[in-house]
Amino acid sequence: MDAHGTLDLPSEDSDLELGVTRDDDARVYAATVEGRRIATLQYDVAEGRIILLSTVVVPDFRGRGIAGGLIADALDDVRDRGLRVTVRCPVVAAFIAENGQYADLLAPG
What we know:
The chain is an alpha+beta fold and 109 residues long. It has one domain (7-99): Aminopeptidase. The protein has two helices and six strands; from the N terminus they run βββββαβα.
């Protein structure tokens, strides 16, 4: 994914077409549906790693697997870029604990 690229996200709602973008200027990954931003994963950058700060999903879209899809794509992007993460967001921490394939991305700090 480039700095403003779009990816398709898997979702528990098959009729919901999600896109995710990474905005390096705003330091946010954003999930959108039909052009509407419905979830964000805020991050910071320090010493060659991404610090994942907070995940927010619009209330009407909660419980549909959107946060998990957004987090998975963000972590895949981090891996593709050869970086590691420090997790400050409890939602991301829980996601990584449940999805061990991402544990190798964790950096101390």
